[in-house]
Amino acid sequence: MKWLFRVNVAAVIVYASFVAAFLVADVWIFPELSALTPPPEAVGVAIRQGDDADGLREIALVLYDHVAEQGQAVNALVDSTVFWARLHFLLALGLACFNVAMLIRIRRLLAKPGSGEAVGL
């Protein structure tokens, strides 16, 4: 029973460090790494106000809209991945904490009456 307790404590420590590292990355690193950002509005304004042929302007606007939509889709995918990774780490940490709490409860229940010492842990 001691080895089970130690494995669960190690799991809590490992997953707590994963959660902490992931939250640090989520707060400070991931916001700086936008996957694709839409082009600046100045590009769209310049295309709209250009004196080139109308057909070229329409093609440029379609391409501009496509790149903007692509950037939004990729950023949404990254945000979704970050959410599910965070949820995975938090659920695993919760499960490991629950296991440790249950082992502590079992340890207390198996304690010898009157001696104050736990059996097997």
Overview of this protein structure:
The protein is mainly alpha-helical. The chain is built from 3 helices and no strands. It has helices at 2-29, 41-49, 54-109. Helix 1 packs antiparallel against helix 3 and helix 2 (41-49) packs antiparallel against helix 3. The longest helix has 56 residues, at 54-109. It is rod-shaped and about 90 Å long. The model has no long low-confidence stretch (mean pLDDT 78).
Summarize this entry quickly.
This protein has helices spanning 2-29, 41-49, 54-109. The protein is built from 3 helices and no strands.
From N to C, what is the helix and strand string? HHH
Distance between the termini: 6 Å
Instruction: Note the beta-strand portion.
Output: under 5%
List low-pLDDT spans: none
pLDDT averaged over residues: 78
Could you say which structural class the secondary elements and strand pairing correspond to? mainly alpha
Helix run count:
3
- Tell me how many strands there are: 0
Radius of gyration: 27 Å
What about the largest sheet?
none
Overall spatial form: rod-shaped
Helical content stands at over 70%
